[in-house]
């Protein structure tokens, strides 16, 4: 086996499969046993209880700060996350006890090495189990930030302006690349003043032809916490789009992975407020940049907005507040309403106590008040998503009553990237047809 194949094999090791999570559990048990084993009763009588107390106490304090004070997430973290975090802290506490209290342990090279390695294994395994909750980093490659998709600079000669033709008048040439490519670019908040992070843009194989077909555009948003790159890593977007393009002569929508929050832990609720004019950024600045800097179909009927979790909520907000800009949407595991935890806090802290301002940004209220006969959308949610499923089902019903042409897809899984990547793959044929690419 060549060194390249060996490296690729290691980088491709899955981290979120049932087998991987079982291995992490076994390593955790082994690591804790090594850290616990000592022949002295005083260790079990005092050392271990102190380590357990320190780990649990630290976890409880962290949970209270996160859920009650900092509130970086709209919903509470799953208990599994806190459980595995406590496990990692327990390993660190046991190592500290063995290392600093029992000096003889660190004076023995083999024992010291075994203790450190065991603690590291437990911490890594706990991180692996937390990762499996969301399926955010599915392989070693993604953890290390090594891409497995083609990239191209935005100023590359292959992206220079060329002649364009309507999709129906275009035909694939023999030199069409086998895959699309991802580029990075800053989309300025010219009108909104919103300071967005760098966006990613997926350009299909057909975009690299001359003449270039006027392709439709999907603006795709990440969750919160999150970043535009999440769709490339946990969401498997390049491989999903490439697979569809391979079966359709290189044709698939251009995907703009825009920033809908402004920061990893920011939660501006996809509205215009003192937290940032996100709605104007996504409904005005992003479409304007697409029109001026990409050669695509600028007809709103060839434009869609979608997202996962917070991004799904945001997509439906834009579809209900600006149907003229985004008449097509993809809401994947979105919230029942935009929130920073509860409605009262949301109205008070984001909308300055103005309940009507909240209602003007809440899809459920807008769907109850207005009609959307020209809009269409897809709702996707996991069958095991106990936190979001009921809300998604209710919004799908409201959208249908408001005249939207919508459908609901419920897939096996929960609130994770495994579900969202499968959902995108499932809805892509419908989306492509809706945006004008045909079958």
UniProtKB/TrEMBL annotation:
Coiled-coil intervals, chain numbering: none
Protein name according to UniProt: Esterase
GO molecular function: acyltransferase activity, transferring groups other than amino-acyl groups
Top-level taxonomic group: Bacteria
Phylogenetic placement of the source organism: Bacteria, Bacillati, Actinomycetota, Actinomycetes, Mycobacteriales
Transmembrane regions: 20-37, 44-66, 81-101, 110-128
Gene3D superfamilies: alpha/beta hydrolase
Keyword list, A-Z: Membrane, Transmembrane, Transmembrane helix
């Amino acid at each position: 086996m060549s060194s390249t194949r060996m490296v690729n094999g290691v980088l491709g090791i899955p981290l979120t499969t049932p087998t991987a999570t079982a291995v992490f559990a076994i390593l955790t048990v082994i690591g804790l046993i090594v850290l616990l084993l000592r022949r002295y009763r005083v260790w079990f009588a005092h050392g271990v209880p102190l380590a357990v107390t320190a780990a649990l106490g630290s976890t409880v304090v962290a949970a209270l700060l996160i859920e009650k004070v900092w509130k970086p997430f709209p919903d509470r973290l799953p208990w599994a996350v806190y459980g595995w975090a406590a496990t990692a802290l327990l390993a660190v506490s046991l190592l500290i006890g063995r290392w600093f209290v029992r000096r003889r342990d660190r004076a023995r090279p083999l024992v010291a090495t075994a203790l450190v390695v065991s603690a590291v294994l437990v911490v890594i395994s706990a991180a692996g189990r937390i990762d499996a909750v969301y399926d955010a980093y599915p392989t070693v490659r993604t953890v290390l930030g090594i891409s497995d998709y083609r990239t191209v600079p935005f100023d590359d000669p292959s992206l220079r302006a060329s002649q364009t033709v309507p999709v129906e008048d275009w035909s694939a040439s023999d030199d069409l690349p086998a895959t699309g490519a991802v580029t990075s670019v800053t989309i300025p908040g010219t009108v909104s003043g919103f300071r967005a992070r760098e966006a990613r843009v997926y350009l299909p194989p057909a975009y690299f032809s001359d003449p270039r077909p006027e392709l439709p555009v999907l603006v795709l948003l990440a969750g919160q916490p999150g970043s535009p790159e999440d769709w490339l890593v946990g969401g498997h977007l390049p491989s999903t789009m490439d697979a569809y393009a391979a079966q359709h002569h290189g044709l698939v929508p251009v995907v703009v992975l825009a920033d809908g929050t402004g920061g990893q832990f920011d939660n501006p609720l996809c509205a215009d407020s003192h937290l940032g004019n996100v709605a104007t950024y996504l409904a005005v600045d992003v479409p304007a940049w697409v029109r001026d800097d990409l050669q695509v179909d600028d007809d709103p009927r060839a434009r869609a907005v979608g997202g996962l979790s917070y991004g799904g909520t945001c997509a439906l907000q834009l579809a209900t507040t600006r149907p003229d800009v985004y008449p097509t949407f993809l809401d994947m595991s979105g919230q029942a309403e935009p929130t920073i935890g509860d409605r009262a806090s949301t109205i008070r802290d984001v909308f300055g106590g103005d309940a009507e301002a909240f209602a003007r940004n809440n899809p459920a209220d807008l769907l109850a008040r207005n009609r959307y006969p020209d809009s269409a959308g897809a709702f996707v949610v996991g069958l095991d998503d106990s936190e979001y499923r009921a809300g998604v089902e209710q919004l799908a019903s409201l959208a249908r009553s408001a005249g939207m042409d919508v459908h609901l897809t419920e897939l096996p899984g929960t609130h994770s990237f495994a579900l969202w990547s499968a959902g995108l793959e499932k809805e892509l044929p419908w989306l492509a047809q809706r945006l004008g690419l045909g079958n």
